[in-house]
User: Which sequence fits this backbone?
């Protein structure tokens, strides 16, 4: 229920603020739900059904024109090339053991494996 979820979120936030170590330990030991992936046949049927029907889109729909008018003055962002120096300065400021990102790598390792920096900015 929504009430239980809300209370759990508050409890988790409090635990995180009091002891990050304990919070992450709890996450590791909590029960994980096993999700079985769909079978190859199910996937094939799903995508075959999705891509086998041709559809025509209304490129002159009113909402498209409205959005173009609203956002027409926004310029496309130029490509930004991150330099190795900028990367090093940014990484230097990051806390070592905060929760890793989608790559599951802690900042500590980015700081230590400096050989990676030139490849991350290439």
Assistant:
């Amino acid at each position: 229920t929504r009430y239980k979820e809300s209370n759990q979120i508050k409890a988790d936030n409090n635990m995180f603020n009091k002891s990050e170590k304990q919070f992450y330990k709890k996450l590791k030991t909590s029960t994980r739900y096993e999700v079985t992936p769909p079978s190859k046949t199910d996937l094939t049927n799903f995508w075959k059904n999705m891509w086998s029907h041709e559809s025509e889109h209304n490129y002159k729909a009113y909402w498209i024109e409205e959005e173009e008018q609203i956002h027409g003055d926004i310029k496309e962002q130029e490509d930004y090339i991150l330099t190795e120096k900028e990367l090093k300065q940014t990484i230097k400021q990051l806390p070592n053991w905060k929760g890793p990102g989608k790559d599951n790598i802690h900042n500590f390792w980015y700081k230590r494996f400096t050989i990676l920096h030139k490849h991350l900015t290439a």
User: Anything to note?
Assistant: DSSP finds seven helices and no strands in the chain.
